[in-house]
UniProtKB/TrEMBL annotation:
GO cellular component: phycobilisome
Signal found in the keyword field: no
Key word Magnesium present: no
Name of the molecule in the record: HEAT repeat domain-containing protein
Organism: Waterburya agarophytonicola KI4
Listed PANTHER family: DEOXYHYPUSINE HYDROXYLASE (PTHR12697:SF5), PBS LYASE HEAT-LIKE PROTEIN (PTHR12697)
Length: 234
């Protein structure tokens, strides 16, 4: 495999053309974190939002000791809600339990739904059961997207105690909520979960029914997965 030219990438990051800078960030995928992060930092304050956004995301997948404090500062104080949301998402990729308090604070205190959504998703990624109360409260939100995130995250943290409440979404008009529910129930094995999954396996929306069927297979409740489920399992 040909290794990326770090000098070339550094030069691209100094280019006046934002497309060059985006391409440079993309090129960092094959670069070791210790070499990549100093280059990423060059465009963390870029004037073009998509460049900044990609740089923030890159901090989450190129973890070094510097990444955590950089992302915390962005989450807490960046004036752009999109960047705060990106920082919250990147913290989930870092999988650093120290992020728990910061993500919790962002969920409760940030006034933007996208930041709160990203914080909820990342709390699920951390798989810390302490997030259960917060995620349960998110189920009562007026924002459907927050409900989606909370259902998925409750599955990730294996909050079996939440099954009763998330089952109230089995008849939701939003098919994405029903899909998230089907996916989450596959990680929350109870008799009621299995019963609900059998119901969702007959859902009119194919992505919901396939998600339910896959969860049933994972739970050992379906010996005859569909062709789509077989492809997923592979």
């Amino acid at each position: 495999m040909i290794m990326p030219d770090l000098e070339k990438i550094a030069a691209q990051l100094e280019s006046s053309n934002s497309k060059d800078r985006l391409l440079a960030l993309t090129s960092l995928r094959e670069v070791d974190p210790e070499d990549a992060v100093p280059l990423i930092k060059k465009v963390l304050n870029d004037e073009i939002l998509p460049v900044r956004s990609m740089a923030v995301f890159a901090l989450g997948i190129k973890p070094t000791a510097e990444c955590f404090p950089l992302l915390i500062d962005l989450l807490a104080g960046d004036p752009d809600y999109g960047i705060r949301a990106d920082a919250a998402g990147a913290l989930g990729y870092l999988n650093d339990i120290r992020a728990f308090e910061h993500l919790t604070r962002a969920f409760y205190e940030d006034d933007n739904w996208l930041v709160r959504f990203s914080a909820a998703v990342s709390l699920g990624n951390l798989q810390d059961i302490r997030a259960k109360e917060l995620l349960m409260s998110a189920l009562d939100s007026d924002e459907v997207i927050l409900q989606q995130a909370a259902i998925a995250a409750l599955g990730e943290i294996k909050a079996v105690e939440a099954v009763e409440k998330i089952l109230t979404f089995a008849d939701s008009e939003d098919w994405l909520i029903r899909q998230r529910l089907a996916e989450a129930l596959g990680k929350l094995e109870t008799e009621k979960s299995i019963s609900a999954l059998k119901f969702l396996a007959k859902d009119a929306h194919p992505q919901v029914s396939e998600a339910a069927r896959l969860s049933l297979v994972v739970l050992g409740q379906d010996s005859y997965p569909s062709s789509v489920t077989l492809r997923v399992l592979k």
